[in-house]
Amino acid sequence: MCADDCSGRDMALHGWVGMNGTFHEPTAGPQCVTHCTPDAGDEGGDGDCDGSTPSPTKTTAGSAENRQKWYEARVAWLMQPDNPVIGEYLARIREINKKYCQRGARDGCGWANLADGILMEEHIREVAGRIDESAVPFRADRFKTLTKKGSNLTTYSFSNPEYALAWDIASGGSKVASVPESNVPKVKSFDAYVDGVPSEFKIPPGSTKDTVQNNLKNMEGKGAVRAYIQLKDGYSSGQAMESLKRYLGSTTAPFSEYYIQARGDLGGWMISGKVGSDPKCKGWGC
Fold first, then answer.
1. What is the pLDDT of residues 154-182, one digit of tens each?
2. Three-state SS across the chain?
3. Residue ranges per domain, the chain?
4. Which stretches of the chain drop beneath a pLDDT of 70?
């Protein structure tokens, strides 16, 4: 018994026209996944896809139950003090509370600390709820490996650096859905849908003058419409802008939009734009 579990992302199913007017062919995407369960329609009831009766399963890719498993696991992971995505932020909040508001104090500080904890969890749940990783079945053992400190596993779902970038994007109100690695030889897939737009995430460890240019080159052949690059903290916006312009001036970009950013002491900066128009820089250091 087999069924295609499709969430109906029209761009992935029917193609779309990019910002530069180029038509993009439909992609497989995470929205259509074939599920098979044994029944009388299968030869020998072996679960092979030789039956035709639709029967979506509850624990496989794309199901609401699978998405809930990912969500709850991520929330629990994000709430850990040493979490690599927002652990530093949570530590700062707790340090401020410890310094200025002792637990159990008669002036109501105990209640203030409790309220802070509730608000932090509400915020985490709200943002995590905008990130959908249900394109692959949740497995507790693989999730543990995926989220281990220092892990850079990218073949299961978002790696730690990729999830950190997805978190930043979702914090701004966007919806982010992960895309599984392609199983087809020599066929590359992009990393995510951001508000339905095929997008590629780049989080380079280096910080040379060609970092932006080199990472944009690596996007070719993946079918992404939008590029996101998270550079190392303190990276120069001027150097990033020069590298971006060198790339755009030397080749025809396979994407239509780009967002390049780096954090800094005063909040960091972001360079954004569309291919064919002048890039804009906002924030500290521009």
1. 667 898 899 999 999 999 999 999 998 88
2. CEEEEECCCHHHHHCEECCCCCEECCCCCCCEEEEECCCCCCHHHCCCCCCCCCCCCCCCCCCHHHHHHHHHHHHHHHCCCCCCCCHHHHHHHHHHHHHHCCCCCCCCHHHHHHHHHHHHHHHHHHHHCCEECCCCCCCHHHHHHHCCCCCCCCCCCCCHHHHHHHHHHHHCCCCEEECCCCCCCCCCCCCEEECCEEEEEECCCCCCCCHHHHHHHCCCCCCCCEEEEECCCCCCHHHHHHHHHHHHHHCCCCCCEEEEEECCCCCCEEEEEECCCCCEEEECCC
3. 1-57, 77-127
4. 1-60, 89, 92-94, 96-119, 150-155, 265-266
pTM of the model: 0.72
Question: What's the CA gap between 253 and 268, in Å, rounded?
Answer: 26
Per the structure block, which two tokens stand in for 23? Answer: 């038509």
95 vs 86: CA distance, rounded Å: 14
The radius of gyration of the chain from alpha carbons, rounded to an integer in Å, stands at: 22
Whole-number Å distance between alpha carbons of 240 and 227:
14
The residue assigned the tokens 């985490």 is 124
User: pLDDT tens digits for 90-124?
Assistant: 776 667 666 666 555 545 565 455 545 656 888 89
Nearest-5° Cα angle at 126, 103 to 272: 115
Bridge pairing between strands 226-230 and 257-262? parallel
